[in-house]
Amino acid sequence: MAEQILEFIVAPAQGKERLDLYLASRLPAVTRAKLKRLIDDGAVSLDGRPTKAGHLVRPGETIVVTFPAAAPKGVEPEEIPLDILYEDEHLLVVNKAAGMVVHPAYANLSGTLVNALLAHCRSLSSIGGDARPGLVHRLDKETSGLLVVAKNDLTHVGLARQLSEHKMEREYRAIVWGHLARKQGCVRAALMRNPKDRLRMMIHPEGKMAVTHYQVLEELPLTSYMQLNLETGRTHQIRVHMSSLGHPVFADATYGGRAKQLAGLNHENTRLGLHLLKSCNRQMLHARTLAFTHPVTGELQRFECAIPADMQALLEELRSQSEV
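The structure assignment produced for this chain is given below.
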């Protein structure tokens, strides 16, 4: 893949600001460490000359960032079938199956979406690092649905900027326990990793703000079918927010969505709940809709993917129970 070049012209109203901070605010997908490496390596020029991270930018200056060609290391391509909804030379949109890990990590070094992507298109953006090439955002292993993947760094930067500015539409569908008192609302609660259990997230004022909009689409026996729209995209955001409302995602063992919800139910509902849980081996959460502006063509791209078979089967079972 050829190197990628991005140019900025400092706006007339721009106050004095360090170059590294100026670039960090405009390239949210690029870590501060990577920006520093680019500057130190001479890949960032100011009016055609090499510069330093501490330079104070001034109106009218031209800053050019060159992302060198880089091939991800340490992750092996694997021929794994992918459900691709859209692809061009800059990006692709994938419908990830439940049960597929997105990127290699401890205990999941192969069989991931990244392994499959590398076999399919060979070249992916390098901004996410060696283990996460191309990944603009992620889904939990047991969450199904849509992901956009960047093939080069410029596309990655453009997509990540839309994410950080809340301009990328992401709509989810979920089945949750119980019936909500408010059928439509918004959860604003900051999230951070639980210091006692690194696999879980928790609501905490020192965390990063997370915003989830929700709407009840259908009330069913013991459960509700929900539409959820994300402003932010924190780890486990929907799962933690719905659990905080007392309505965890159905079959989500991490956040209280399995047997814990049977407490206090009468015999008939307990039996029904157990029956439904036996058919579900993952949380009932699906990324259904994804929309963004193509960073290169400027065209609005919108994609939808159907509710997967296991969620659809549960919905049909619940609807049949409501008719009894």
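Interim note for the steering committee: DSSP finds seven helices and 17 strands in the chain. The helical segments are 19-26, 32-40, 113-121, 153-164, 237-244, 267-278, 309-322.
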